[in-house]
Amino acid sequence: MNETIEPNNNVLSSSKNAKLGIFIAGACGVVVGGLYAVATPFVLPAFRRVCLPFVPATSKQVDNVFKVLNGRTGTLVDLGSGDGRIVIDAAKRGYNATGYELNPWLVWYSKITAVRKRVKGNTNFYRNDLWKTDLSQYDNVVIFGVSSMMEQLESKLSNELLPGSKVVACRFPFTGWTPSQTIDEGIDSVWLYDITKVLLKQDEAHKLKTDS
User: What is the pTM of this model?
Assistant: First the structure.
């Protein structure tokens, strides 16, 4: 007489649960990996010499930049332009605006955003190293820097910018320069520097040193 062997429901249920668990774990891994792949290019350092990750400017920071530049025109450059928001806003305000950024994904994203915002004609985005870029052609310079780079940047800007140019430092000031204007506090702080005054002060200091 043949006996009918009934399937063990507990075993089948455990097997199904194990397979479901493996599937969910795999799906989560794919999602996390995808998010990492997408996000990583946007937070890589913008400058090679100094570790400077991309941190988007707040709306208030952007407003503060253009408050201190009120009445200014001409060319504007954003050093480490990130997602292009400063450059695009500048173009909307009539500037011929340029952004320099090492991260190719952010350069690509900025160009697409400029097309969407209909300011492509007044914007340029380049994948360039800040330290290897000639800044003498710009009337207005915007920099979201870190404290460790500001001293080196002081030297570069004072050597390359022409009298009449203005520099806006965000988040961290230039310790060797005296700002013409300061707005806000904390992360939204901006400092405006007049290169004409900076160069005059440097000339006076050099003359005093020579005479002594």
Answer: 0.75
